[in-house]
Amino acid sequence: MVQGLLRDNRLDFLTGREFALPALFVLGGFVLGFALERLIIMALGRLWSRRGWDGWQTVRKSLLGMVTLLFVAGGLYSAMRVTSLAPTVLSVYQKAFVVLVIFTLSLVTARIAAGLVDLSIRKAEGALPSTTIWGNVVRMLVVLTGFLVALKVLDVPITPILTALGVGGFAMALAFQDTLSNLFAGLHILASKQLGPGDYVRLDSGDEGYVVDVTWRNTTIRTLPNNVVVIPNSRLASAIITNFHRPAPEVSVLVDVGVSYDSDLRRVEEVTLEVARQVLSEEQGGVSDFEPMVFFRGFSDFRIEFTVVLRARQYVDRFRLKHEFIKRLHERYREVGIEIPSATRALRFEPERV
After folding, report:
1. Among the CATH numbers 1.20.120.610, 3.40.220.10, 3.40.50.970, 3.30.70.100, which is that of 251-336?
2. pLDDT-derived band of residue 6, with 50, 70 and 90 as boundaries?
3. pLDDT exceeds cutoff 50 at 11
4. If 0-12 CB within 10 Å is exposed, 13-18 middle and 19+ buried, where does residue 72 land?
5. Architecture of domain 187-243 in CATH?
6. 278 pLDDT exceeds 90?
């Protein structure tokens, strides 16, 4: 009875020659797609590596597995053509094959487009920083376009769907208010160039560290103790931010020093600048071509106070630079006889009156 039902529906191709031929088409599609994929990747790699184009790595990663998938789908389609399927069933498989091809092409295009956008943004000087959010936006737009094309191929009316989305957009905006506010806040932060990945920032909440990434929902900051702080984009957009990498990563390092009143201030200035130049030229975090400065700023109760101005390449370099400068300056002062006085207090005790 089952065999008769299968014959009536013309689906009895799972025996003998009618099974071997479709399987051969599928296997052939896989082998041909795998071999052709490797040839395409090798040819593109040789061509673009000679021209020095960095984007071919993105294209190569995007094509991995996709060409093979297309040829396997083609093998399945060819297998359906040689089998005795009913016209209605064959029509369904044909539409499924077209949808699969559209989905594969959309996925490849989305990967390539997102990768090239990130690459072009990273290479463009002074442009928007490369973050996950830009790649996700481009990828989402390409996939959505492919989805609409697939609906058109399936003869599904797109206009009612767009109308329904427009009508339901207000309700979705209310339901996903926090998500949308974080998304647009993240886009606003990047578009205004307030911060970007790699910048060292300090927030009014006291959190500070390197910006790791700006996603569609939050911003990740890695602190100096190697912890991670996750901040919603909407809160970050309204926070007071100190960016130590904008407009330039170099920062001034101020070191307060004091010497005794018996010191020769000209000699003090000369020795201090000598040590400062040495530290800036020898330490990795120092700006070697910066001319250090000394500013005497006042007389305290027990010493003459002044400030030494150094220049560090980045904000975090100031710790090492300041450490090395104080150590060498103290050693140099001891060699030349410059005194760094310490606060002293004289206590006088009145005799007790009887």
Report:
1. 3.30.70.100
2. very low
3. no
4. buried
5. Roll (2.30)
6. yes
